[in-house]
Amino acid sequence: KNEVEQSPQNLTAQEGEFITINCSYSVGISALHWLQQHPGGGIVSLFMLSSGKKKHGRLIATINIQEKHSSLHITASHPRDSAVYICAFDSGAGSYQLTFGKGTKLSVIP
Amino acid sequence: EAGVTQFPSHSVIEKGQTVTLRCDPISGHDNLYWYRRVMGKEIKFLLHFVKESKQDESGMPNNRFLAERTGGTYSTLKVQPAELEDSGVYFCASSHTYPGYGTDTQYFGPGTRLTVL
Q1: So what's the pLDDT on residue B1?
Q2: Dihedral of the CA atoms A71, A62, B111, B107 (nearest 10)?
Q3: Which residue among A102, B15, B67, B81 is the one 20 to 30 A from A109 at the CA level?
Q4: Does residue B6 or residue A41 have the better pLDDT?
Q5: Environment class of residue A22 by beta-carbon count within 10 Å: exposed (0-12), middle (13-18) or buried (19+)?
Q6: At residue B112, what are phi and psi to the nearest 5 degrees?
Q7: Do the strands B31-37 and B43-50 form a parallel or antiparallel pair, or are they unpaired?
Q8: A14 in helix, strand or coil?
Q9: Is A106 helix (H, G, I), strand (E, B) or coil?
Q10: What dihedral do alpha carbons B89, B81, B12, B107 form, nearest 10°?
Q11: Is B107 in contact with B3 (CB distance < 8 Å)?
């Protein structure tokens, strides 16, 4: 069983919809990361958070440390949001290497 | 500020050949990470440099993989001899360390797609 589980694996939404992607992890972490990868593109870090909530534009990331759960929300989704969204954590044990989920493929239809 | 760059973007080689991937991190970033995504799987950690030293190489699959980071600047990842299962996308990432705080966000390169035939 992977240490990071994301759901859903695939998500299709209509433009303008509110989107939620979930991430659960099974170990103690230092920080939770949300990353974005567009088709054929590189990986971009969206958020790094260790508690509470962060907001950037239409993107909101939340984390519940006690429940070992994080969510990424996209408000007023747009076709340009179509990408793979990846949840990852670092345990902070000296290396800060990331352990990744499999990603959620989001398609936003006009 | 230039981002993380990787070379080549694609490489197609035959089984048994040698390939060297290069990563140039963001200037001033002490931390350099190599990751790999094999088809259909999640991205996996390979190793971590702090400046020129290997901090953690627990993710290196076997001794056919050799990573170096010359003078704490760019890094190379050599696969010799390459096997079919080495095919995948190899990502490099770099980050800054804040003393007493830890590392910052990791910035990823565009990746090198390696195909071993």
Answers
A1: 64
A2: 180
A3: A102
A4: B6
A5: middle
A6: -120, 120
A7: antiparallel
A8: strand
A9: strand
A10: 30
A11: yes
Helical segments of A1-110, H only: none
Question: Among residues of chain B, what percentage have pLDDT more than 90?
Answer: 80
**Cα(A29)–Cα(A26) distance, integer angstroms:** 9
Of B89, B98, B92, residue with least CA distance to B68: B92
Eight-class DSSP state of B59: T
pLDDT per residue as tens digits for the range B55-111: 899 999 999 999 999 888 999 999 999 999 999 999 999 998 766 666 678 999 999
**Most B CBs within 10 Å, among A3, A32, A89, A95, to test the B interface:** A95
Interface check for B7 against chain A (CB to CB < 8 A): the answer is no
What percent of chain A is modeled with pLDDT above 90? 80
* Predicted confidence band of residue A92 (pLDDT cuts 50, 70, 90): confident
Asked if A84 has any chain B CB less than 8 Å from its own CB, the reply is no
Chain B positions touching A45 (Cβ under 8 A) are 105-108
A4: nearest CA partner in chain B: B42
CA B97, B108, A96, A73 torsion: positive or negative?
Answer: positive
